[in-house]
Every structure is written in structure tokens, then in C-alpha cells.
Amino acid sequence: MLTKDDVMAALAAIPGPDGKTPLSRSGAIDGVTIRDGKVFLAIAVDPARAKAMEPLRAEVEKRVKALPGVDSAVVTLTAQAAAGAPRPAAEAAKPAPRGSRPIDGVKKIIAVASGKGGVGKSTTACNLALGLAHLGLKVGVLDADLFGPSMPRLFGISHKPALAQDGQRLLPIVKFGVKVMSIGFLVEDNSAIVWRGPMVISALNQFLRDVDWGELDVLVVDMPPGTGDVQLTMAQNVPLAGAVIVSTPQDLALIDARRAIAMFKQVQTPLLGVVENMSFFVCPHCGGRTDVFAHGGARHEAEKLGAPFLGEVPLDILIRETSDGGAPVVAGAPDSPQAKAFLDIAKRVRAELFDGAKPARVAPRIVMD
Amino acid sequence: MSDQAGDEPWPSELRVRDKGARLEVTFDDGVAGALTALQLRDASPSADKTRVALPPGKALTIEAVEPVGNYAVRIQFSDGHGTGIFTWRLLRTLTAA
To answer: Which of B2, B14, B87 sits opposite A364 (nearest CB)?
Structure first.
């Protein structure tokens, strides 16, 4: 019966990684496993010398295999840090750099947020982006709603993004003149993203940094509802030029919109303004108008906060159909009154961003004496 | 919350002095003050405030100050604590106190 000692005895005849100490006494043998005539053995080497150690590995494999009772031998090299060098594990435990950094080539990053879900954030974000592009700006859309990505459907994109030339980054998908990136491009329609916070944060950072956005005037970020990990990551890791808050006029939605506004205020992100979505409904049969969710609530809220009111968008079947159909109204029917509502909002956002009276305040100098 | 972001006092400079013993904070309205590492450590708003004893004779120091978004800094202390996020508002409260 073959034993570990038999294997070690065979290794005594081979010089170890330093070229003289017998391998069996070099301390480099990192575990020997013997099972049914199969021998598994690892040699720990300095990773910098891994290539130079390949002949040693091959020699050991040959010698072990030649032992009586051995059918096969698998010898591998494992990384062993030189004494005194920092352990890789300790390095991995250090948090990634957290400071706020701009994204190369991207001039302004704006967040479209609401607080409450279902008020039409994504539809507004998508049409706002198309509106800004219509005004001649270079625009990107980042779908930050990782749990419920809407951009694939809104833009009618169902294929996967390509790799950039560097082989490292993803290329956003260009549709209607806008660069779009969504986690929905990478997973199946009916599969779910089931992640805890840290995964969400890391995915979001990858979408910001590891996507080849190129030159953009504005990157519109469609936020998930709420005031959680995604919102905080956006506020902490990139310089946000401002936030657009979308709300329906009903009190139930305005309560959450106020929370979203309070959050952006807490992280010192300027409020670009408030959009009232589903502002009213005009009956296509009789022409009568109904304020389904009440009317004017968002405008009133904006006035109360001294924030610009960016405009109102009706509850409208054309907007719904074009959104579900993957040809949003600003792209598909740019001359319609519905598209005009979004274009007016885009004009106001552009004015706030580029001719705004109050530029975002810069973080203080940090000096270590 | 009638006021929008933009009208609160804002720090213009954060300067770490005396090999990390103190942090000097200067605001754009002229208010300035110095906070000791210990003061800041005690005021850390982090949920994780576990204190690791420093070797005897070693004073607590500030090892690093890094920006968090546009609204705060994260301070790394010599006792290993480094998860507290100090907003401009908190620094103002501490400086003015």
C-alpha cells in the first residue's frame, strides 16, 4: 500500500525550489493526497517564479508517477507569498477606494428618482434622455434599477451588449441616438436578480466605470424607487449634477417624493426640479378631462421647496403604448403633444444643468500636513 | 425643509495637523476651528464604534481623510476605526460647539 512517506522519499532525490534543499525537506510540499493509486500533490512557490518552477513540477509528476502502485499523479504549483510580503487575503479585505470620482468623458450625471414606485420614473427618464438627445446633446442612459430594469423594454433592446476593443469594458447599446446600459441586457427577461446590498453596489459601480460610455454631455440614471443602497452609492461614488424627482399628484406618492427630496438634500445633491406624471387624463371619446390622481400636487410641492417645476405629463394611452412597444413617444412620435410635454421638460433640465445660476458646490480641499 | 442644497455653510478646507493629532476645518463663511482626533472619534456617527485599545503611549491620530460624494468625508483613525461618515453639517456642529 502506497503511503505519503513513500512519496516523500521519492521527493528527497529532487532539489527543491531553491535548487539545493531536497524537496521533501524544503517545506514547499503543500499537501499530499493519495486515493486509489492516484496521487495529488501541490508545491508552494513564489508566484513571481511560477514559470521557472514548471520544469520542477513536471519532474516531480514524472517521479511520483514512476513509483510502484501509482496509476496517475497530478502535481500543481500553488502561490506562496515570500516571507514578510503582505498576505493577499489581507489585501482583499481592504475596502475598495470609496472616494467620489468623476467618470471620464461624462460631463453631467443626473438621477431620475421618485421615492414611490410605479409613478413613471423609467418612462420619464427614457423620454427625458431622448428629449435631451433631440436638443442636440450626447446622452447616455444607465438603468440603475437592478431589480426591475425597464430600459430593455422601453428602448426595445433584446440583445446583449458587445465588449469594447480593450476586451475589458462593455459597450452601451445605441438606440434612437442614445447610449443605453441595463442589467436587463445581461439576464433573461423572466429571471430575477436576487442580491444583497454589497452585490448591488458592486454591480452599479461596474455599470458606471466598466462601461465604455465615451463622450457624453449627460448621463441620465434611472433610479430604483426608495432611498437605499443604490441611491447612496450614486451619491457617494460619482459627482451628481442633480436629481429630477418624478411624482404623481396624489398625496400617497408625494409623501415618498418628499423623502427622496430630503435624501438628495442630505447628500448635497442639487434638486433640478419636479415632474408631475399622470397629471390628468383626457378621454379620447368625449374629450372630457379627469384628474385621476388629483392635479397640481407636484407643482405645489416644488413651489414649497423653491425647486423648479419641470412640467406635467398626462396619463395617456399613446405614452403607455409606445413605452411598452419599445419606441418611446419622443423617438416614435416627436411631433405629438405627448412628446412635446417631455421635450419641454428636457429643455428645462438642460437650462438647469448648463445655464443654471447655482453651480454645484465643490468639495473642500483636504490637506495632510 | 424649505431650503435647497446650496445655502448651508460649506467647508472650504480640511487640514490634518500635527501628524494626525488634529483636524482644522475652515468654512466658506469664515468660521474655523480645530478638532482633536479623540473628539472626532467620539463623535463618529458610525454604527460600528468598537474601540480597539492602542498600545500604551500611543495617542489616537487621524490616518486618512477621504471624500464621500459631495457631502462628507470618511476619517480613518489609528485605532482601526474608519467607517464613520462625517457630513459637512456634523463637522459644522462640532466646530461651532
So the answer is: B14
